[in-house]
Give the backbone structure.
Amino acid sequence: MRGTGGLWASVPDMASREKQEALRLLEESQGLLGAILMGVALQYRSLDMEQAKLLAGWEEACGPGPEDVRMAASLITLCALFGFQRQAEGLAAREAQSGETPDMMDVKLGAVSILISLLRLARLQEAFREAGPAGKQAQLEALDEMPDL
């Protein structure tokens, strides 16, 4: 009879709370993946802009240039990576609170992904700052080349 109302306080349904938390986490993940897809779409758009620039003599004066779009795409992707990192850290903390040993590999891999994204963003910014409009394409091509290891 306990938990059915009346004088007794209702017992919170833990399974329902866990289910709601899991659903919230999934919805947040979908939003973060949407942000990454938006970043990819912007990267794709920057390539279209570069192509138009080469084929039709498109000029940067008509709006943001492909470099600006590429920078915005990198920032959006970086924000999504920070969101995923926050999720991984939260899940690891919950596991630790429940007495389990959390698998920290996702947290470490997320941190490495963020570091790589930050390095890429810094290189993009440096390339755009140093190069004039004519040298930006060469800088972008140099950034995309694989280094010899």
Residues 16 and 71 are 42 Å apart (CA to CA).
